[in-house]
Amino acid sequence: MRALGLFAASLLACGCALVPLYAEPLPPEAERITARTGDGWNIALVRYRPRGEANGLPLLLCHGISANGRNMDLDAEHSLARWFAAQGRDTFTVSLRGGGDSDHPAPREGRSYRYTIDTFATEDLPAAIGRISELTGSAKVDYIGHSMGGLVGYIYLARGGAAINAAVTLGSPARFALGEMNERVLREIGKSVARNIDTVDMPTIAHAVMPLHGYIKAPTDYLLYNPENVSRELWQRFIAVGLGTVSGGVLRQFGLWIREGAMLSADGALDYRALLGQVRTPVLVVAGKADRTAPSPAAKAGYDYLGGPKQFFVAGEENGFRHDYGHVDLIIGERADEELWPRLLSFLDEHTPASP
Amino acid sequence: MPRLCSTLFLACALLLTPTARAEGPWRVGKHLSGLRTRDDTRVALYRYVPDGGPRASRGRVLLFPDVGMTHRVYDVFGRGLAPFLMRRGFEVFVVEYRGAGASEVPLGGFDFEALVEGDAEAAFAQASSGHERIFLGGLGLGGTIAFMLAGRHPEQVSGVVGLQAAITLDVPNEPVAEALGRLEEAGPWIDLSALLQRPLFYGRSWFEVMLASDRSISAHELAELRRLTVSRVPRNLVAQLGGFMKAGAITVSGEDVRAIAGRYPGPSLLLFAPRDNWIHPEFSTPLRDVLPGRTHVRVLSLVEGALLDYGHLGMLFGRWSRLDVYDPVLRFLKAEARRQ
């Protein structure tokens, strides 16, 4: 047992030591900013000022579950943030609480592990948008959310949030009844999560086997990306800098959604699906054809619930893409800057008010 | 003596021809017969009789091809779901809609109602005659028709298999949206076979991108499928399907198929293909929400235990279809046949 412990510890030490080899630091033009939430957490933002003449509203990019703001700026060639800045958008990335440089849970300092997806939408997102408004003078922002980041956007809008001008959700699942095996596995995970897990430290787990990522195909590889769009080196970089911890509260809320087959608030009082019908903010819903984490029927459900104006689009070969897109391909795919992101920009531009 | 000789000759002839294995008027194997629909159109019905004849079969199965497809989608020269089930003891019927394959081509075209009220109902009446209950199955919009019939005749249906059966429609992608936008320029008939051979993206044809998207079909079979499985469809039918896409609902005789299918309380097996670019999984997945009966759902995806992420025709002719599709269908039919 002791030997096993020593082996695990040395594996972790080696893996963590190797992480900097795969990482690339933020570019010099990136400005680190902090927003303070109403419940006292510091939320990290990074600003990428527009290159050339600014146009359109400020843009906020939000990552998914178990991730951080670096998802949106992995390196010079795979950066949604730098790409939008190059198109003239004043672009911000956010790391939700528990991820990146934002505050992490610390019960002794009054920061509980119990935060939920609702907390991101009611505390972190308003704080981030408020800070961007202070810095730019714009009362509204455009918003792009990947995976759970899109769901955070849905919840913000469903709860009446009015500071988003137009939004894009990328691979954000709003339906949880898909296939029997998937549901069985998720239910089992849900049961163990219900037993008071405080947090899942994904970076530590993933970094322990850092050099092996991409070489050995784990279930997460199948779930998260299509190797035709994401190279091994790119995936390793993503693992090195793009992961964040997940709180038990967030997992429990997902568990509730899977159990009830509905997007409910953490206390079960609100059904966001019904509230989304009242949303009149323009939303573009994008699904990856090869996305096994948020399959296209799950992403399409979000589109179906929205009040509109709205658009739905599948990132795949059927629409002229070189390959079908997996879950993280939508934000870091090798050809996303040519195939996908211009479509997001044109949707946001289309809904930019005449005089921002 | 001459009389004895002729009797012996007849006996030998009977023994040497396939009719020797007949039970009643049926021979083991595949047969083609014609059906008259209620609007007097002649449509083809293929019947696959198992060893031992109809009386020895484990049950009857009526399969509906996707709209715009021939019966070959279930049988390309002995390979396919229909002969597979026949060889395992089921008596299988496959209808060929008007305008396709060996069926009559109505000069004035036809609409979706004609396929349901005419062809599908006539095939159902024929396949269920003399049997208390039968199984139904269908691919894409053929699956939609199967569930509609099950909703209309629930007491006569043992179970339904939906292979990417659509319960709603939406414009699936940009090329289809563009083609629908140019529909007025098309003639009264659209030759899907010719259309699907046209190049679309990256040197791949419409057929490869839309129908064989999972790349699990060999090049040789792909060529055969392209030649044999798709048919001509009237422009008015395509326009009607385009209307369903815009409305987000499939309706027959003024009623939404979700309501019709919702009246079927029996068991069903739903197989969803996540990489299908013809009938999207977004159109088929909501079917599980409307069925009140016992429903088994299998997503043909790697993360659900399948050997690959399947597309439209890959479900039936892919490298691993036998394991991932045929066997689960057979298990479902056998289990439900035993139960009943």
What does this structure look like?
The complex is a heterodimer of chains A (356) and B (340). Chain A is an alpha/beta fold. Chain A has a single domain, classed as Rossmann fold. Chain A is 40% helix and 14% strand. Chain A contains 14 helices and 10 strands. Chain A has an 8-stranded mixed beta sheet with strand order 1-2-4-3-5-6-9-10, with helices on both faces. The longest helix of chain A has 21 residues, at 2-22. Chain A starts with a helix and ends in a 6-residue tail after the last helix. In chain A, 53% of the residues are buried. The mean pLDDT of chain A is 90. By secondary structure, chain B is α/β, with parallel strands linked by helices. Chain B has a single domain (25-339), classed as Rossmann fold (3-Layer(aba) Sandwich), CATH 3.40.50. Chain B has helices spanning 2-16, 81-87, 112-128, 141-152, 174-181, 192-197, 206-211, 219-228, 235-247, 257-261, 281-284, 287-290, 314-317, 321-339; strands at residues 29-36, 42-49, 59-64, 90-96, 134-139, 157-163, 189-191, 199-201, 204-205, 232-234, 251-252, 255-256, 268-272, 295-299. In chain B, strand 8 (199-201) and strand 9 (204-205) form a beta hairpin. The interface between A and B is medium-sized, with 27 and 33 residues.
